[in-house]
Amino acid sequence: MNIFRRLLPTKFGFKISKNSCNAWGIYSIHSSPDCVVEVHSPEQEVIIALGSNVGNRLQNFDEALHLMKKSGIQITRHACLYETAPAYVTDQPRFLNSAVRGVTKLGPHELLGVLKKIEKDMGRTTGIRYGPRPIDLDILFYGKFKIHSEILDVPHERIWERPFVVAPLIDLLGSDIDSDTVARWHLFSKHSSDLFELWEKLGGESLVGKNGMKRVLPVGNNLWDWSSKTSVMGILNLTPDSFSDGGKYLSVEAAVSQVRLMLSEGADIIDFGAQSTRPNASKISVEEELDRLIPVIEAVNKMPEVEGKLLSVDTFYSDVASEAVKNGVHLVNDVSGGRLDSNMHNVVAALRVPFIAMHMRGDPSSMQNPENLQYNDVCKDVAFELHERLKEAELAGIPAWRLIIDPGIGFSKNTEHNLDILTGLTTIRSEIARRSLALSRAPLLIGPSRKRFLGEVCARPAADERDPATVAAVTTGVLNGANIVRVHNVRYNADALGLCDALLERKQYA
């Protein structure tokens, strides 16, 4: 066959058993002492599992990904991040688990050698089987092949009994089968018709959020389980021209006072914005944005009340994002999803902070132009365009476990579009899930606060009279799947979220 080539004999060789091919053409590779057959293809698609429970677990993941990329593994997708109870040997720290999907020209044994070297270089030593380790890297799938040799089994025979392996594996797929290779992966599943059925047999989504397994997002020095409660992001506009409260918090003293108020009323996150993104807003320079922003961030970080809270910067400039993070900000919130600054994704990837990617067409000065308001189906179209931006962020090195999605209420949308999005958040998730289950499971943020469409529906032309309508919009969004709400009036909305969370909990256990 032209996709294979013979190499010189080695201790651990392969021979291809064509007799074991099924209707899908899956080849099994078995060990043979007298020859070796390696894949003769430009590249193979692989899935590699990651685990760590020694030292700084997340830093271990970041370092392993860096070394994998340097070794010839191009990472194309990341699973979600899971904190899980240890299996088999239970008297040890909790694990972080995830997986990545990528392509490589390395043969299967070459790949195994690379991964083992990374483990060794990162401090893994021979110890108790299933015991503590700084990093554990396992090949889950290699192309369309089943591999069995003296040192390598792919798929690993114990994958199918391990929810902490299957959960991130499922994340790397879409609900649509996007290639022949993925179709073959589904056929490898033991005792199930496909991997989705296997996941359901293990317990599926009902396992996530329980004591043994949490889906988390790393932010600051913590792992954030955003599903435990809906989070409130309080808006702090350091601008003279924002549509709702422009000019109110231009001094450091006024800004600090407003942050203190929002924190006392229940804000979990403070979002600093030093450039207006209202319709028809003009851009200001990086320098002017930083002049407004940095003194306030410095002052807020000195407040005792900010301990344990998260700080976010609302910017589409990568230089502003970088400086804000250096001064203590934890998240980058970009209304363009990285489209207005070609360096944004690379900068955020290097900063290793969460990235909020919002949907918008054009920029604030053009987003409400007629050509940017044309949709066939707003929820499906937003999901498709948002997925493209999320995919670009992932390819630049921002893992899915550091992404937050925002459908962009009020940005390139009219009143009907905004209403459809509030009631169609589950559609947006399911449409993204067709292409990537991991990205569809990211925290979802909505920002309807005091927006114009609320004024049009409720006949409230003044933005500061739209807080009751904001509460209604936020309630609708949370009951339809939003995890974070970005609001001006923290007090009213925090109360609404408390009720929403209680209702959702009752529904879960009904």
Structural account:
The protein has 510 residues and is α/β, with parallel strands linked by helices. It has two domains: 44-214, 2-Layer Sandwich (Alpha-Beta Plaits); 229-509, Dihydropteroate synthase-like (TIM Barrel, Alpha-Beta Barrel), CATH 3.20.20. It is 35% helix and 21% strand. It contains 16 helices and 21 strands. The protein has helices at 57-70, 108-121, 163-171, 180-187, 195-202, 252-264, 286-300, 318-326, 344-351, 378-395, 415-423, 425-435, 437-440, 452-458, 467-479, 490-509, and strands spanning 4-7, 13-17, 27-32, 36-39, 44-52, 73-78, 81-84, 95-104, 136-142, 145-148, 153-154, 213-219, 222-224, 231-237, 269-273, 310-314, 331-334, 355-358, 403-406, 445-446, 484-487. GO terms for molecular function: 2-amino-4-hydroxy-6-hydroxymethyldihydropteridine diphosphokinase activity; ATP binding; dihydropteroate synthase activity; kinase activity; metal ion binding. Residues 230-498 form the Pterin-binding domain. It catalyses: 6-hydroxymethyl-7,8-dihydropterin + ATP = (7,8-dihydropterin-6-yl)methyl diphosphate + AMP + H(+); (7,8-dihydropterin-6-yl)methyl diphosphate + 4-aminobenzoate = 7,8-dihydropteroate + diphosphate. Keywords: ATP-binding, Folate biosynthesis, Kinase, Magnesium, Metal-binding, Multifunctional enzyme, Nucleotide-binding, Transferase.
